[in-house]
Predict the 3D structure of the following.
Amino acid sequence: MKGPASPKGLALTVTLCVAGGLAMLLLAVLAGTVIGEAPLPLTTVGEVLAVRLFGAAHALDPIDAGIIWNYRLPRTLVAAACGAALALSGLVLQSLVRNALADPYLLGVSAGASTGAVAVTILGVGGGVIGISSGAFIGAALAFALVAALARAAGGGSAQMVLAGIAGSQLFNALTSFFIAKSANAEQARGIMFWLLGNLSGVRWPDVSLAVPVAVAGFLACLIHARALDAFSFGRESAAALGVPVRRVQLLLIGAVTLMTAVMVSLVGAIGFVGLVIPHAVRFVTGPRHFRLIPASALTGAVFLIAADIVSRMLIAGQVVPIGVVTALVGAPAFALILIRNRVQA
Amino acid sequence: MRVEAQGIGWHASGRGIVEGVDLVLEPGETFGLIGPNGSGKSTLLRLIAGLLPRAEGQVLLDGRPIHRMPRREIAQRIALVAQHADTTDTLSVRDAVELGRTPWLSAFAPFGPEDRQIVDEALAAVEIAHLAGQRWHSLSGGERQRVQIAKALAQKPRLLMLDEPTNHLDIHHQLSLLRLVGGLGMTVVMALHDLNQAMGCDRVGVMQAGRMIACGPPAEVISPGLLSETFRVGASCLTDPRDQSLLYRFHILENDR
Ligand SMILES: Nc1ncnc2c1ncn2[C@@H]1O[C@H](COP(=O)(O)OP(=O)(O)O)[C@@H](O)[C@H]1O
Ligand SMILES: [Mg+2]
């Protein structure tokens, strides 16, 4: 695991990795636009992109162009942003709270975001001043504060954190169901239940302009704290002894995680297992240092969720399976593996 | 660097864990902290390192109050090897020691060849260079202890604080560690259980129930009276025929049940 000795070699390695990562992301996005119920040839996709992005003059089939530009491309981009954001959220939580099982979904942050979003949509909380994303952010922040306080009051161990997360998830999921039962009509309820499981069908361009900047900002916030996150390896006090302003870093990064989770949940619903499983899988390849772990997790999360979205569209002909179902089908067995591996180590 | 603690203390669960400790550490001295279990040695070390919230009194580094200094500047001056350290990350020994460079690095000063060299020297100083590639989890207790010390050395502090550093170490590594810290030329404070090792310090401070009840050169401070009152042991003072140095042999007091 020895790095390249010379700074020049290091710069070259970093450049190659970044280029390779971007190429992989680009390929995944292309796959997301090409593959679908009506497979469209790469040339059509290329033509549409050339016309829309660079103003090239091509005669386009309006239906194909519509599918590509208005549906597949935005949902693929949002899937990428969402996958990256969720993987980063899981990674940062695992490093900060020193718990291999930390993840926004398990700790109830996603559930809180769902409750906030539902409260704004169907109860009209905030009187139209607060948007869905802001409602989700408030819900997510509340949930995290509650779970963290409960875990602390219970003694602050690993098990306590997970148990507090379960309690928090249950509470906020119950609140969400209660709001739906109380105020939503049958059709609204169906739509919301579908969204709650994670669904990218409704994604359009305005969602892209929210999801992508938030994911990029979250990524940069994590990356500039890579060294600080490394310093948490031996715990909070050791990080402080190594010169990390622990409270400020925790506040900032947990804020970033809450924001990323809230925005992604408000756009596509609560998608589980990405934040939990991706960072663990990536650690096998990159090792524990965050300078590599952060970009690799973001990339893997993005590619994984694009793939999951493709599968969700293709799994049953004529129907879209909620993407949360797909990630759970892959994630639950992977999660089981993590549990088993942790037992062996302990 | 001159370190001055003025009336420092810390309360937890309604009682004083450390109370009203005044202490001046002169540059380059080796200071031993002794006292029974639970007497507040670890807490005092963490207080001096500025790691505890709601601390009473103040610590001055060359006259500057530590609580007004950024953590990073403190970490460039003080390194603390805690009594217990563990991680669930699959770090290598080199990774762990490289963490010691954290306070010196930034986006504009990334890990470079000098840092690599400092890490190599730290690994060599505690004789773990051959373990550099090995995983933290696979190390023995004593090897882990030496990794933590190497990490602190890589921090290039001016005050090195060691909490029971000779725990887990075999006798060779205990003695070589004590020789190492004696020759570093930096101020060293260490909590010690072996009173004969404390005899080798320039000065010792004795903690009892959160207070420093005595402080001074070991030959003056460590006396049979102190040993029976604070440590509840009797002691016979012997002379090592090799170099005429004094050492104690301990026995349990007859009237102690
Ligand atoms: N965070 C804490 N909350 C309550 N009590 C504490 C805390 N930390 C230490 N103590 C208590 O303070 C006393 C001194 O602890 P410590 O400084 O670790 O002693 P030593 O290192 O001398 O064995 C012990 O009785 C311990 O139980
Ligand atoms: Mg102690």
Remarks:
- The longest helix of chain A spans residues 62-96.
- Residues B 41-42, 83, 163, 191 surround magnesium ion (ligand 2) (CB under 6 Å).
- The two ends of chain A are 24 Å apart (CA to CA).
- The mean pLDDT of chain A is 88.
